[in-house]
């Protein structure tokens, strides 16, 4: 049976040479986004540029230039798990004032199947187009692309499962919350509060894959799919090439900008809440004030050279000012929360009173910030 759209094979107003090399672009961005292990509800099952970062396992390799200060346990580490350092980068934290609080879920999280449905429809359309045109190179390209997507999903899922197991392990370290201060490779700093076992087992150590042999076989198969795509896509007819480019580039752009990315946790058991300090000047002293350090912890910060010596009176006076304002801001929010509950319980005009109270709270915070 002749291909219904066979005449499209001769449509070639221009040529796309060395098209296979296009699939290697965007490797750094895809390593960051895929390596963060965050789910994407739109394009998790679509082809992406920089496909070589998956079979090479580069998306989980450790990154350099990060330092974690475990203030609660007085431990400093310059070695972070690759997924966690990429996750921090993918969050685009503010300059020094972002706070992330991690915890474990009592029930597993299940993402919807929207990404799988979207990917199935789009990839099926490319396969159908190749068949309708009668382009067997295009068909081979589509099959290699689909196979690479399945391999990527498997490798990412294995790393997420490893994190879930590590987060549930309390055999050595307790689940008590610890305060950490992390300086990123780009110079930004952020505050992270998490259970001790999560910090040690997940943030500082790379969780171990449950089935390393199967994992290695999947990586090898991923290389075959990647090389097969490079070879065949350059031989496909122009209309199929354009379809593959549009789909791949669109999915890559959405991934790079975090559109559709689920940022409330990683895996099935880890969840995270993000907040920003109300006084967002980006000064390091404000970030330190968020930690509510006692004198012993401040001495530890001096030993780590994060704080200057105490004879630097100008810096310490400014730090104490930030600390005092931070305490007042917390008191304002706590009082506001208490009064809001009372208002809602005692008045039918709870929503109006809540709005008025919110405005009053904001005014108080602004007044404290301008003192």
Automatic annotation (TrEMBL):
It comes from the Eukaryota. The keyword Signal applies. Keywords: Membrane, Signal, Transmembrane, Transmembrane helix. Residues 346-364 have a biased composition (Polar residues). Residues 346-371 are annotated as: Disordered. The chain crosses the membrane at residues 115-133, 139-157, 213-232, 238-259. Residues 1-27 form the signal peptide. This is Uncharacterized protein. It comes from Letharia lupina.
């Amino acid at each position: 049976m002749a291909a219904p759209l066979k005449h499209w094979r001769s449509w070639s107003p221009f040529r796309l040479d060395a098209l296979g090399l296009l699939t290697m672009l965007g490797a750094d961005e895809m390593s960051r986004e895929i390596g963060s292990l965050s789910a994407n509800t739109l394009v998790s099952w679509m082809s992406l540029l920089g496909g070589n970062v998956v079979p090479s396992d580069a998306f989980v390799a450790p990154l350099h230039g990060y330092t974690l200060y475990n203030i609660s346990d007085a431990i400093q580490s310059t070695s972070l798990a690759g997924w966690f350092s990429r996750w921090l980068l993918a969050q685009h934290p503010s300059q020094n004032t972002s706070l992330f609080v991690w915890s474990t879920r009592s029930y597993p999280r299940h993402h919807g199947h929207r990404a799988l449905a979207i990917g199935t429809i789009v990839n099926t359309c490319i396969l159908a187009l190749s068949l309708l045109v009668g382009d067997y190179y295009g068909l081979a390209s589509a099959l290699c692309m689909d196979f690479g997507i399945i391999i990527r999903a498997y490798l990412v899922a294995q790393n997420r499962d490893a994190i879930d197991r590590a987060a549930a392990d309390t055999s050595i370290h307790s689940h008590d919350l610890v305060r950490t201060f992390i300086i990123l490779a780009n110079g930004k700093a952020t505050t992270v509060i998490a259970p001790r076992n999560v910090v040690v087992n997940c943030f500082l150590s790379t969780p171990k894959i449950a089935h390393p042999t199967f994992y290695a076989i999947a990586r090898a198969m991923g290389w075959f799919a990647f090389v097969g795509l490079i070879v065949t896509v350059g031989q496909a007819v122009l209309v199929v090439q354009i379809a593959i480019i549009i789909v791949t580039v669109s999915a890559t752009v959405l991934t790079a900008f975090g559109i559709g990315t689920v940022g409330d946790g990683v895996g099935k058991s880890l969840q995270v809440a993000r907040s920003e300090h109300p006084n967002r000047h980006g000064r390091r002293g404000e970030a330190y004030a968020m930690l509510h350090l006692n004198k012993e912890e401040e001495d530890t910060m001096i030993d780590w050279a994060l704080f200057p010596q105490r004879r630097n009176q100008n810096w310490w006076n400014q730090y104490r000012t930030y600390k005092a304002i931070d305490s007042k801001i917390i008191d304002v929010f706590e009082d506001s929360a208490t009064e809001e509950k009372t208002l809602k319980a005692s008045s039918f005009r709870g929503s109006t009173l809540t709005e008025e109270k919110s405005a009053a709270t904001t005014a108080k915070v602004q007044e404290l910030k301008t003192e």
